[in-house]
Amino acid sequence: MTYSPKLTRLIDALRRLPGVGPKSAQRMALHLLQRDRDGADFLARSIGEAINGIAQCPKTRMFCEPDHCGFCSARREDTGQLCVVENPADLLAIESGTGYRGRYFVLMGRLSPLDGIGPEQLGLPRLIEQLSDGSVRELIIATNPTVEGEATAHYLAELAKARQVPVTRIAHGVPMGGELEYVDGGTLSHAFSGRHTI
């Protein structure tokens, strides 16, 4: 099927979203053009504002607007706890599904040498600085229970132990091979409160 160049570009752009295949992208594009041009304009402006106005916090590596990271407060730092997660969706799952209110560090991935993802890509030099400055009294590792997540957890535990920082790992309740953002709040809360030292 032949579309106009601009429609083809819109469909290709929508296909970049996770879980959106060719048919779904086509359906979305046609809907926006046929029934919701105001919504399309709002979507385009919102994406532009987000791209230009959202950065990464230098401490947590979470997405935030400049000079405002909601996860860097002094109250959070006073807990002495630092929870390491793989991605922003995991942070939000823990924040909404548990009572944890300490600091976070978002890796934006997990160790995967075959994909060229090593310690530098995960911001681990920044994490090492935080582990070394004496403010962290417990490192909580909340990586996903996948092969790469477990390897990353082991690596993080070794970094913390070398700096005499106690390490815990979220425990039972999260299925092996699962992703934290898809685990229900009750299961995640149970797993988080039942974390253990590694």
Description:
With 198 residues, this protein is of the alpha/beta class. The chain folds into two domains: 49 residues, Helicase, Ruva Protein, domain 3 (Orthogonal Bundle); 135 residues, 3-Layer(aba) Sandwich (Dna Topoisomerase Vi A Subunit, Chain: A, domain 2), CATH 3.40.1360. The protein contains eight helices and seven strands. The strands form two sheets. Strands 4-3-5-6-7 form a five-stranded mixed sheet. A two-stranded antiparallel sheet has the order 1-2. Strand 3, helix 5 and strand 4 form a beta-alpha-beta unit. The mean pLDDT is 90.
Total domains, how many? 2
The helical percent reads: 40-55%
Task: Please indicate the percent range of residues in DSSP E strands (runs of 2 or more).
Answer: 5-15%
Number of strands: 7
Spatial arrangement of strands, main beta sheet: 4-3-5-6-7
Architecture blueprint of SSEs:
Layout lengths: L4 H10 L7 H13 L2 H17 L1 E2 L6 E2 L9 H5 L2 E5 L2 H10 L5 E4 L17 H9 L5 E5 L4 H16 L4 E3 L15 H9 L2 E2 L1
Parallel strand pairs: 3-4, 3-5, 5-6
Antiparallel strand pairs: 1-2, 6-7
Label this structure with key terms.
5-stranded mixed β-sheet; Dna Topoisomerase Vi A Subunit, Chain: A, domain 2; Helicase, Ruva Protein, domain 3; 8 helices; 198 residues; two-stranded antiparallel ribbon
